Amino acid sequence: MIKTDLPIYLASKSPRRRKLLKQLNLKFKSFSVETEENVLPDEKPDKAVLRIAEEKMFAARKKIKSGIIITADTLVFLDGKVLGKPVNQTDAFRMLRNLSNKTHQVYSAYCLYNTKTGKTITEFVKTDVTFRKLTDQEISDYIKTGSPMDKAGAYGIQDDFGAVFVDHINGCYYNVVGLPLSKFYHALLRII
Amino acid sequence: MIKTDLPIYLASKSPRRRKLLKQLNLKFKSFSVETEENVLPDEKPDKAVLRIAEEKMFAARKKIKSGIIITADTLVFLDGKVLGKPVNQTDAFRMLRNLSNKTHQVYSAYCLYNTKTGKTITEFVKTDVTFRKLTDQEISDYIKTGSPMDKAGAYGIQDDFGAVFVDHINGCYYNVVGLPLSKFYHALLRII
Q1: Can you say how many angstroms the Cα of residue B123 is from the centroid of all Cα atoms in its chain?
Q2: B165 to chain A nearest CA, in Å?
């Protein structure tokens, strides 16, 4: 679908994001960058997710001399507060209980950089996600699968459980998985 | 996640629906039923999708003497008119061009029947799906993959191309794939 002579690099450790990129039939190499991913005090969600994606790009550009570089970040907010990855199972339980029967916001940002033209595109997408009411048993069963532990907000919408927890969404589905494919695809066309 | 002594049967040929049911960790057998799936003149989308799911159940009940039976149907509506499966590639092209840059509606209904209690649950979910503007080239490339030909509305939201065509949705994602998992899961708990 997308043709370019430049090699494409994804600077992300996320297996979900790698899978999404493959869905675009893209050939790319991936590597990871180490950056702080904390939201600053009083920082707005959109500003925070864009800044973190840009900081990842700043680190990635030191490693790649020629190509299209992609970085991305996803943040989950509930009642204006960021939900990180759970530190332990109790934390995961608390998070999922808080998400139950409420609407929260998922922000994903990506940053694209073309080393040849020097062009950068940084954009974000917000999706509202509404959980149905969860029972404590359902939450415990989900945590036992281990899946919540490496995920912001302690859930994956593409998980078996995640699928039945989410009642509805308003916005891009893939944005919740980790990359807003439709918007991202167009950005990629523009940067090439 | 769901425990029952009764065998579970899915009366549907759709590989997508089978995959969704597996996502619930359900053990089930599947078979197909032959019914008319036409929307009647002046029939409202919600009425039509519920009726078709019920007619499938009527046919399925003749084949199964003991168990939980599941039937389902999905209809795609644009500007109040139903979009069936494309009859040929030209038809698929016309459909996708019509869907471009517009919001359409996907209705999925399921019917559940418990042979032991005689209980039936029939429900539907509506999801709004918004396509971004598609180029003729993108539409042609998608049709070449063959995927649109067996799908109502000539697209699959879970396809590689479908993913980048859909700008956003309002409602349940899995409803667009073919079964609203979150609502369906709760209905299944009630029928067992």
Answers
A1: 13
A2: 6
14-43 in chain B: CB under 8 A from chain A: 23-25
How many helices (H) and strands (E) chain A has is answered by 7, 7
Give the one of B160, B173, B182 whose C-beta lies nearest to A24's C-beta: B160
CB-based contact, B164 to chain A, within 8 Å: yes
Residue A110, H or E segment? strand A103-114
Per-residue confidence at B37, pLDDT binned at 50, 70, 90? confident
- Is residue B43 helix, strand or coil? coil
> Taking CB atoms and an 8 Å cut-off, how many pairs form between chains A and B?
73
Across chain A, what does the average pLDDT equal? 94
Our CA-based measurement puts residue B177 at a distance from the nearest CA of chain A, in whole angstroms, of 12
pTM of the model: 0.85
Is it the case that residue B98 has pLDDT exceeding 70? yes
- In chain A the domains, ranked by start, together with CATH numbers, are 8-191 (3.90.950.10)
Give the model confidence (pLDDT) of A150-190 as tens digits. Answer: 899 999 998 888 888 999 999 999 999 999 999 999 999 99
Rounded distance between C-alpha atoms, residue A185 and residue A2, angstroms: 9
